[in-house]
Amino acid sequence: MRRRFSKGVIAILLIVIVLAVAITMGLFTLLNRVTPFTASGEGCEITTPAGTMELEIEQAQVASVIAAVAARRRLPERAVVIAYATGIQESKLLNLPFGDRDSVGIFQQRPSQGWGKPAQLVDPVYASGKFFSALVKVKRYRKIPVHEAAQEVQRSADGSAYAQHEDEAKILAAAFTGRVPKAVRCWFPTPTGKTPLPGAAGARQELARALGSGTTLNATSRKHGWLMSSWSVAHAREFGLSRVRYNGQSWSSASGEGAWKSDAGASAEQVEIS
After folding, report:
1. Which residues make Cβ contacts (< 8 Å) with residue 116, sequence separation at least 6?
2. pLDDT more than 70, % of the chain
3. N or C: which end of the chain has fewer CB within 10 A?
4. How far, in Å, CA of 83 to CA of 181, rounded?
């Protein structure tokens, strides 16, 4: 006997299929965003002696937060490399609001596996802290291969996949930890001014949350100063910053290319943002 479905059931099935296709295409699109849409006039470039990478501004923001949280915990650059290799594989360093099953965020951490609540895991500061808390429990994580350390934290289906991102991770780590000066430059169109942005005060507050320190931008070392400078440049569009100055160099959003330029008046003791 042939089973007949009502029009209502057929309509529901069609809606479910359309939604599934839309979600799949959305995930595919996000996970294939590797380089900035330079045609739109915005993006970031990371340059170190080891090489050059292009990022979307959102990716640079995530990378800067990871480095800041690692600095707060006084972790070695190796820990940052492992975190970047993991983040590139899991999300392309994008703060995804969805993923496989209940996975969310930079590292695709799952609430059902005890990483935290969904709202917490899409906070890059919180997610990075949880990643590093797990990483430091991995024996000899500073010595074992990057992909093995990452897999000990993630427990993914294919832990070897993290290895392919090690070179990129090392470039990012050298830049965002501040070890390589003026390594991060970003550019974007001038904001229209219709929507008020948080400004320098908001930027200082958010950077302090990542670093776990006060809202002053006093540099305890050159490396620390360049870490804060890189974070500020990466978040300039979000907070409406037009200038970052540090250690004889300045970055300006008005330059168009986002390049650092000589600035004799820029202090080596404090990062200035405006």
Report:
1. 109, 126, 127, 130
2. 85
3. N
4. 21
Name 259's Cβ contacts closer than 8 Å, sequence gap at least 6.
Answer: 185, 251
Tell me if 236 sits within 8 A of 253, measured CB to CB: yes
What b-and-e string marks burial along 96-105, b requiring 16 or more CB atoms within 10 Å of the CB?
bebbeeebbb
Separation of alpha carbons 31 and 89, rounded Å? 9
The predicted-structure confidence for 35-78, as pLDDT tens digits, reads as follows 433 445 999 999 999 999 999 999 999 999 999 999 999 999 99
Distance (Å, whole) CA 151 – CA 145: 10
Query: 112: which DSSP letter?
Result: G
Cα–Cα distance for residue pair 69/80, rounded to 1 Å: 9
Is residue 260 within a helix (H) or strand (E), and if so which, with residue range?
strand 260-262
- Can you tell me the distance from the alpha carbon of 80 to that of 64, in angstroms, rounded to the nearest whole number? 10
In whole angstroms, what is the distance from residue 1 CA to residue 16 CA? 27
Q: CA of 218: how far to CAs of 3, 75, 119, 204, 246, in Å?
A: 74, 20, 32, 11, 10
Q: How far is CA 161 from CA 32, 33, 58, 90, in A?
A: 16, 18, 23, 10
CB 244 within 8 A of CB 178: no
Is residue 83 within 8 A of residue 72, CB to CB? The reply is: no
- Does residue 116 contact residue 132 with C-beta atoms inside 8 Å? no
132-166: per-residue pLDDT in tens? 999 999 999 999 999 999 999 999 878 899 999 99
Which uninterrupted H or E stretch holds 52?
Answer: strand 51-55
Residue in the block written with tokens 């202090």: 267
Residue type, 272: E
Write the single-letter amino acid at 185: R
Contact status, residue 228 vs residue 219, Cβ threshold 8 Å: yes
The tokens 């200038």 sit on which residue? 243
pLDDT at residue 72, as a whole number: 98
